[in-house]
Amino acid sequence: MGNLLELKKVEATYDQSIILRGVDLEVPPNSVVALLGRNGVGKTTTLRTIMGLVNTTAGTIELEGKKLGRTNPESRARMGVGYVPQGRDIFPMLTVWENLKVSLSIYGKESANRLEEVYTLFPVLKEMLHRKGGVLSGGQQQQLAIGRALLTRPKILVLDEPTEGIQPSIIDQIEDAILYLKKTYDMSILLVEQYLDFAKAVSDRFYIMDRGAMLTEGSIEELSEDLISRHLTV
Q: CATH second-level architecture of 5-231?
């Protein structure tokens, strides 16, 4: 069986500077892949190219073997790419329910069937349905952002720094949610993460980036202390 998501020799530029340099990346079905690297090496740009928010200048991105080409972000979301960007990107002036309803209104009855599962994964959302998103803690906003993405019924969930600025108890909940989703659904997860203990706990495979290119990859068991000290520690 082929990969769910595959990047082949992807390049991207910004203001005439090359940001991505021939990036190759594979996400198999029913897997969690961690994209690691120091700050500013191109990890977020890689995710944004997958979503169609940054145009590629070379290479291809394929979802289930279909080239995405110049497909816009909305179409990619409908094709099965769920995205939670850094900073969560919820609607702060809308209530929790109104934030969730954005996905429900687009994806309809099938999404409504998943609503109770989102509440089971993140019980705080059900408790705070009528609170505005802007008054939630950072961890609660992250749960809302992931919950909203899950209602789109993604084939692959793309998470940018899901633990950034979040209290440990909620990091544990997000870890449990990722492990549950991988086990229960026909879904893969690609995440950018700085917190290595979290990445090791949830991931099957890893890639390490540096200066816009992939340095190495392997099973998560192969993420050695030597690799960490050479390429990931500040």
A: 3-Layer(aba) Sandwich (3.40)
> 84 by DSSP, 3-state: which?
strand
The pLDDT confidence band at residue 109, using thresholds 50, 70 and 90, is low
The reply to whether the predicted model has a pTM over 0.85 is: yes
Q: What is the pLDDT of residue 1?
A: 62
What is the token pair recorded at 107? 């994806």
Distance, CA of 30 to CA of 92 (rounded, Å): 32
Least confident of 12-16, 99-103, 117-121: 12-16
**Which secondary structure element, helix H or strand E, spans residue 101, and what is its range?**
helix 96-121
Q: Which residues pair with 132 in a beta bridge?
A: 95
How many residues would you count in the chain?
234
| Crossing angle for the helix pair 168-184 and 96-121, to the nearest 10 degrees | 70
Give me the DSSP letters along 155-223: SEEEEESTTTT--HHHHHHHHHHHHHHHHHSS-EEEEE-S-HHHHHHH-SEEEEEETTEEEEEEEGGG-
Residue spans per domain, the chain: 5-231
> Whole-angstrom Cα distance, residue 52 to residue 50?
6
CA 210/CA 141 separation, integer angstroms? 30
Instruction: List 33's β-bridge partners, or say none.
Output: 190, 205
Structure-token pair, residue 149:
């993405």
CB atoms within 10 A of CB 184: 9
